[in-house]
Please model this.
Amino acid sequence: MKRLIILGSTGSIGENALRVASALRDRVQVVGIAARTGGERLAEQAREFGVSHVALADEKAALACKGMFPDGTSLHVGAEGLVDLASLEEADVVLCAVVGTAGLAPVMAAIDAGKDIALATKEVLVAAGEVVTQRAAETGSRLLPVDSEHNAIFQCLGDRAAEQSRADDIRRLILTASGGPFAGRDDVDFDTVGVEEALAHPRWNMGAKISIDSATLMNKGLEVLEGHWLFGVPLDRIDVVVHPQSIVHSFVEFNDGSVLAQLSPPDMRYAIQYALTYPERCDGGLPGLDLPSMGMLTFSEPDALRFPCLALARQAGEAGGTLPAVMNAANEAAVQGFLEGGICFSGIWRTVSAIMDEHDVISAPSLAAIVDADCWARARAIEMIGQ
Ligand code: MG
Model:
């Protein structure tokens, strides 16, 4: 039995994780759930799964829903509440599916407590990959990727997924990208395109932040960096290929030229279930693929000129130090700025690029220096968007 904590249980990944837990009640027990503001839904989940520890990151939301939780529930409050929940004695695995670097402190706490991390929040590794992976190696906590592409690679690596030396015979990782709503749409003007069009992802039903990141291709840029930290493969051996059908979730090319892939319908429960049952597989009621009904699977090169975020992320990854954290935080703020109407769609990468240019990179930064760089970039982006 795996005892599971879900950070971000009311979001898209969190809700899917609860569906997986519900299908695997003899293997997975949910012992803690956390959300940012959605207290009402959190209380429903607590009742349905008999969860006794809950956390709300937003203090006002916590105050407003105090009476909603079942008797005997411990309510942890604020950013500190998430950290408390993540290090709970009675948990084995912490699934982190909160938005952005808000996941960093709770993930570090869970790693310090030696728990396994099922990681959906890629921003944690983008901003602080070196610190996080080093600490995990020290405490023996395993990083189990939930991001569908990295979960696919993890599956392709099979029994060797947890080995340190696994990069030796990997020639290339090839991440698939759906391309988002604007792939191949040369008619769309990125200075005027609306929020709703950018949010309308053709394949995946996801939260707002990741949907916009998919539309700019920043999501894939972040995933290149995430793949580097998870699998120890150099950035120049991680490629991206556009695959609009989202059936092949990624490829691993080995040094003998063989390429392995993992396929499934575009549904996050496959990745979540594998992360929670690894190294075992079990029947959680998910269907396989009906190949003849799928038609063509296509692959093409991403349009680097039209989608500059991919190159910005690589540039940040190659410079290293605090630049990836700055790039990521500027992007989080810029996406928020776009969603609120403060900047246009192309303003997202213009903001990110300008802030990266302004930043004096600190190499081999401590966790505190990374957090400072994140705060600086966020504040600078908000200031820029306000002008
Ligand atoms: Mg992904």
Notes: Residues 180-216+303-387 form a domain with the Rna Polymerase Sigma Factor; Chain: A fold (CATH 1.10.1740.10).
